[in-house]
Amino acid sequence: QVQVVESGGGLVQAGGSLRLSCAASGRTFSIYRMGWFRQAPGKEREFVAAITWSGGRTYYADSVKGRFTISRDNAKNTVDLQMNSLKREDTAVYYCAAQLNDRGSYDYWGQGTQVTVSS
Question: Which of 53, 57, 62, 91 is deepest in the core (most CB within 10 A)?
Fold first, then answer.
């Protein structure tokens, strides 16, 4: 079992920055990839960014490339999402998730943290 807990959400003005953090615990040695997803009101959950746990390879949705940066600290078992140049359309509940295999769905999810971008 792996547990993931997000933190760092809040209210920010458009153009501002926010940093989300995800703490993983439990059988973290079994994690292959950590990802961030988001779900806006009335919309489906969508992929934001991901990073492989050991190699640090990163993946980004086109909508956040150049603005968001995902990073990990294996010693602390944390994955951060630095969000810059935030837009109103970035408003959503952000979820952290852990994937145990290279293929398939993400296996463990956090409860989510709200990010609200005001104009």
Answer: 53
Task: For 15-65, write each residue's pLDDT tens digit.
Answer: 999 999 999 999 999 999 999 999 999 999 999 999 999 988 999 999 999
Phi, psi of 30 (to 5 degrees): -90, 0
- What does the alpha-carbon distance between residue 13 and residue 15 come to, in Å, rounded to a whole number? 6
Q: Quick one: tokens of 64? A: 């956040």
Rounded Cα distance, 17 and 83, in Å: 5
Are 77 and 98 in contact by the 8 Å Cβ rule? The answer is no
* 30: three-class secondary structure by DSSP: helix
Structure-token pair, residue 19: 């940093």
Structure tokens at 80: 């951060």
